[in-house]
Amino acid sequence: MATQAAPLIAAPAVTYLNHEHGVASWLLTKDHKRIGIMYLLVVTFAFFLGGVFASGIRLELATPAGDLVSSDTYNKLFTMHGVAMVFFVLIPAVPAILGNFVLPLMLGAKDVAFPKLNLLSWYVFVIGFAFTMYAMIAGGVDTGWTFYTPYSSRASNTNVVATGLGVFITGFSSILTGLNFMVTIHRMRAPGLTWFRLPLFVWAIYSTSLVQVLGTPVIAITTLSLAVERFLHFGIFDAALGGDPVLFQHMFWFYSHPAVYIMILPPMGAISEVIAAFSRKSIFGYSFVAFSSLAIAIFGFLVWAHHMFVSGISVYSALVFSFLTYAVAIPSAVKTFNWAATMYRAAIWLKAPMIWAIAFLGLFLVGGLTGLFTAALGVDVHLHDTYFVVAHFHFIMVGGAIMGYFAGLHYWWPKMTGRMYSDIWAKVAAIIVFAGFNLTFGPQFILGYLGMPRRYHVYPDEYQVLNVLSSAGASILAVGYALVGIYLMASLFKGERVGANPWHATGLEWTTQSPPLPHNFEVQPVVTEDAYEYALREVKVG
Amino acid sequence: MAEAAVTAHGDHGAHAHHHPDLQHHFDTLEQQHEAATLGMWMFLITEVLFFGGLFLAYMLYRVWYPEAWAEGSYQLNLTLGTVNTVVLIGSSLTMALAVRSAQTGLRRGTVVWLILTMLLGLVFLIIKYFEYAEKFTHHHVPGSNFAFPGPHAPQVQIYFSLYFLMTGLHATHMLIGFGLLSVIAWMAHRGRFSPEWYTPVEMSGLYWHFVDIVWIFLFPLLYLVDRAHVPG
């Protein structure tokens, strides 16, 4: 126990958690904080489900022969892993859980602009998830999460339409959430909270919302057209009917590449908060970090065809798309350098969220740099559809997005629950996840470079050592994630109660009690200083 | 006006003066109206991108198969299409008048103009029904029953696939708009709107005009395109 006689903190009398009770009070709530928690439950379940599918993949790949599952089952495993993780974990994780919870608090608002629409978004999300679950239970789907035609239009006999409808419906949840957040940021800021006083998390959410609002409708119309094509035999993408399968790829990636930025921008925002808070410094180059979010969102719309360098697109357009893809590296690097510069010569307070954030920095760096390999036209011909690409995007999606999500979750957990988890276990888990992650996906870079293609369940014997390493890493990763679940759950019952601001952080969300009041603030906050004025705070930490 | 200024900065008793339609998380009706307007325009932008995917497909295939596009568009009923265009533009006029009536506090006027808008929408859908029925009898509906003379049959089928997807999606939006307006008309009838607060009327007006504008693009692209190139 700590030797200082810290006064025990009493639980606040009225919080958003206890002011009303019963299942109906949750299912009919318009409170952004409760809706955030409801997303947390669904997304965590989807994460578990996606993890189970991933385990199946890694178990099968432990041996060169296809001895655990048939090739058809394997196709379903990686498809459903992708669908669950992309549409039901990565896209909603930070915006819908953390964004919902902290965005209005950060803005000093009572709620988002459209609370009913916010609840509707959750229901739409759950209905979309139910469709996808139905498709999984009814026999699965085997086209890959990319639904490429003609696999999805002609070749597959699996539940493509149900899964496509699930994605279509879930898309509207994403659109409505993005729309809601953008209007909230425009119209609900506290007095004095000018654009350049906003926390960088808000800039990140704003940029993300822009992508959600502009990109998601395109995937909606694409999956709808695909469903109509399958159901009614309309010819839009079917080459046998004169249609163009490559058009599907263009339309699919017009959304699905920007979707990568829906997944990574919000965790980047969370990382900015955590790094500033635990470096006890103002973020280095605030406006550069803020505008780099917008730049990523805008450039993100101009690079989709880099997924199609071997799909027969013209050399000249490939050249342009390759160049633009390199351009996206600039704002990403701006962020990374600014975070590093913030930490430079700072009195870093190494609490658990910071460990997760530092792990993010390392893994995102590798993920980003390997992206440049695949953006190079000649190199991509060699690497396309190999494990190199799999490793690259897992470094971004898991090493980046999920690590950033966990950094944010650990940072705001005491605000959400009013209790602190075990710092030491959280650090141990972060290190286990970091180690397990590198062991899982590090070898896959080499496998891909050596020529192992993705989406096959048998492979030549010489790839086995690296595959066994990868599978071993995956089991360590699973232990790490399970540990996070265990100590976070335990903290709900045994965690020490915290006051309004356990991290002595800046930001309006830390000025109200933990857990917050039903309507967030007792009096309307007024902002008089920039974000991250840590230099003005005399608190000694660590 | 002076009283409003006092209540805005006054004590908590001021809540009693709040407009009944002011939601708890907004400070003023103006803020609430601005949020709704911004949200609605953003929703319409998502709709532009939603239809945009189909316009992209249309553009690609029209460049690839100009003959099929000419032959396909020649099969559409130009008279019914033109009548429907006029009907829809008329409904936008009545919708604008409904918003105007709500703005000036004419309760009866709002209800009447809204009902007229819905009736015109209904006329549009009925005419569309007859057009679709004609396509069924002529085997112009894509799928196993599709039949078209000449060498461009597969490409003409793509034309009709896009025709049905685009007009079908448009008609779905009309149906949603019809439902929306019936709720708004009922609210107007119950006297829920005033010159102070008529945001829902204005928002559904924006939606209705958007659906109208989509048709303004669909009509020339589907009915009139390359029509002159095919001999009668």
What does this structure look like?
The complex is a heterodimer of chains A (542) and B (232). Chain A is mostly helical. Helices cover 66% and strands 1% of the residues of chain A. Chain A contains 15 helices and two strands. In chain A, α2 (32-60) packs antiparallel against α3 (71-107) and α7 packs parallel to α9 (286-299). The radius of gyration of chain A is 23 Å and the shape is globular. The model of chain A has no long low-confidence stretch (mean pLDDT 94). Chain B has 232 residues and is mainly alpha-helical. In chain B, α2 packs antiparallel against α6 and α6 packs antiparallel against α7. Chain B is elongated and about 75 Å long. The termini of chain B are far apart. The chains are: A mainly alpha (542), B mainly alpha (232). Chains A and B meet through α6, α7 and α8 of A and α2 and α6 of B.
Question: Could you provide a short overview of the structure?
Answer:
The complex is a heterodimer of chains A (542) and B (232). Chain A has helices spanning 23-27, 32-60, 71-107, 115-137, 151-155, 160-187, 200-232, 245-279, 286-299, 315-343, 352-375, 377-383, 387-417, 423-450, 464-494; strands spanning 419-420, 496-497.
Query: What is the subunit arrangement here?
Result: heterodimer
CATH architecture of chain A: Up-down Bundle
What would you call the structural class of chain A? mainly alpha
Q: Show unreliable segments of chain B.
A: 1-16
**Please, what is the CATH homologous superfamily of chain A?**
Cytochrome c oxidase-like, subunit I domain
Strand count, sense and barrel status of the largest sheet of chain B are: none
Question: What count of structural domains of chain A?
Answer: 1
Number of helices of chain A: 15
Whole-angstrom Rg of chain A: 23 Å
Which stretches of chain A are poorly predicted, pLDDT < 50 over at least 5 residues?
A: none
Q: Supply the CATH class of chain B.
A: Mainly Alpha
Q: How many beta-strand segments of chain B?
A: 0
| Relative helix content of chain A | 55-70%
> Can you write the helix and strand succession of chain B as a string?
HHHHHHH
